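Readers of this paper often ask what the protein records in our data store actually look like. Such a record has a labelled line for the sequence and another for the backbone structure tokens. Nothing more is needed to write down the fold, since each code stands for a local backbone conformation. The record that follows is passed on verbatim for readers who wish to inspect the format.
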Amino acid sequence: MKTELQNLEKSALEGLENVTSENELIDYKNTILGKNGSLTHILKGLKNLSGEERSEIGTLANTLRDRLNLAFDEKKEQIKQIKIAEKIEQEYEDVTAPAPVFNGSLHPITIIQKEVEDSFLRMGFDIYQSSDLTTEYLNFDAVNVPKTHPARDMQDTFWLEGNGNVLATQTSCMQNLIFRNKKTPIRAIIPGRVFRNEDVDATHDNTFYQVEGVVVDENISLGNLKYTITTMLSDLFGKEVKIRMRPGYFPFVEPGMEVDFSCPFCGGHDKNCRVCKGSGWIEFMGAGLIHPHVLEEGGIDPKKYSGFAFGFGLNRLVMIKYGIPDMRYFMHADIRFLKQF
């Protein structure tokens, strides 16, 4: 039996060299030292030995068991260290290399403004940047806003003390300047920042962005307006978008109308649509044919020329396209929000 124990130790240690994982080690240890293992099988022959031999072989067997357990423990630690080394190698980073830097991204309003501008540029429009500060005349009088109109109240407009200037409440304040400084035909859009003296909440802000559009030429009709807006929206959403027009009042156009566009997300087929609420239509902007008084004030003969104008909130368009629930996110400079774009 001494020989059997010696042979078992030799073969067990040789086999241990080929073990490469913890699961293999557990299985292999059971085959050597387990309840039905090789050592147990040898020790079953103790009953055939004399008392003195049984004591000697028992001592040798216990010593062998201790040596093999130690060998198995050392192998387990070796496997553990190999796994750690492999993981370190896989996850190694050169600590002397510069840390990765987030280079930033465009603001979602900037992204959509550029897409809108690109669409109008393809249609032959010029782009003018609106002014933050303007005059009462350009902001109101030149676009046919009556002296008694509530938009002129302190509750709606930021007035500068002493000189009658205002923070632009609408990008329409640029219309008169464009009419007087550019020869017909005119095709222009005017993106810019506007200001309203109102409370801030999820859908309102005292500072936001608009896009104004004007076209002046001979024989301009509502059909031209419909084509222009439909083309821009279809470009923006990457699919065919339809529009509908409802009567509306705006002092600088006659007739005036509210423009809705078909929901590009559900097409009106989902009553749970987060954007159109299942109606299939999204309220979008005000528009119409430019009022003759506005053309005259800009030095354009309304008997010879006609035109259309429209204006929409850029913030709202961004919210619709990206599913942004709160307008205040645009001004918070929160990196967690901005990194998504």
Q: What stands out?
A: The first helix runs from residue 2 to 16.
